[in-house]
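Long-time lurker, first post. I've been practising inverse folding by hand and with some scripts of my own, and I keep getting stuck on stretches where the structure tokens seem ambiguous. Below is the full token string for one chain I'm working on. Before anyone asks, I'm not after the true native sequence, just a reasonable design that respects the backbone. If someone could post their per-position residues I'd love to compare against what I wrote down in my notebook.
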């Protein structure tokens, strides 16, 4: 059976991520952020989603997953904090945003392939963050931005790692279902 494991970093939307994945017809399970990578591997995930969360990745005591989760050989989607943690753990840098962003934003798409295939330029997304990736890890490239966020979506197609600074799981992100569908079906092959 194909399954998506969602690592929960404390987002108020984690349950909603699981629901949206299940609505798309894919089984999903939520596990704590600190579930050992060996345990995640043993559960046989077809893909991983790293949820958002209220903390800063560089803050003392912030929830961190093991870097080994990126060695499981499955596609990974980081959402908000999940994107920031991906950048942080894989050699990028995360810094406080010059301006906190909460609410609607228009997506400026640089690459309509991959995660954002079929998403129109200017599409409405929902932002809720105080930090931002400042430098991406090796192999990653920016695929979308907003007026306030240079790094709104990223991809490392070779390793099948993806990230969005916005929340595709909420109804306020108009192409959210489409983006999750792209991750699950086009990019993860479920």
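-- Answer (accepted) --
I ran through it position by position. Result:
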């Amino acid at each position: 059976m194909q399954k998506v494991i969602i690592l929960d970093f404390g987002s108020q939307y984690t349950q909603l991520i699981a629901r949206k994945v299940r609505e798309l017809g894919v089984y999903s399970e939520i596990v704590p952020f600190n579930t050992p990578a060996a345990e995640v591997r043993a559960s046989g995930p077809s893909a991983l989603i790293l949820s958002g969360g209220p903390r800063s990745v560089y803050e003392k005591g912030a929830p961190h997953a093991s870097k080994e989760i990126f060695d499981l050989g499955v596609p990974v989607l980081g959402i908000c904090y999940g994107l920031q943690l991906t950048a942080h753990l894989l050699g990028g840098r995360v810094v406080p945003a010059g301006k906190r962003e909460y609410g609607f934003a228009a997506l400026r798409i640089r690459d309509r392939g991959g995660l954002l295939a079929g998403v129109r330029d200017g599409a409405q997304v929902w932002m809720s963050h105080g930090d931002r990736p400042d430098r991406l890890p090796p192999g990653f490239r920016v695929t979308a931005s907003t007026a306030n966020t240079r790094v709104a979506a990223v991809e490392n197609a070779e390793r099948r790692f993806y990230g969005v600074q916005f929340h595709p799981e909420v109804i306020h992100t108009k192409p959210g279902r489409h983006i999750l569908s792209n991750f699950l079906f086009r990019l993860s092959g479920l």
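A couple of notes from the structure itself: The helical segments are 14-23, 37-42, 81-89, 176-187. The radius of gyration is 15 Å. Happy to go over any region you disagree with.
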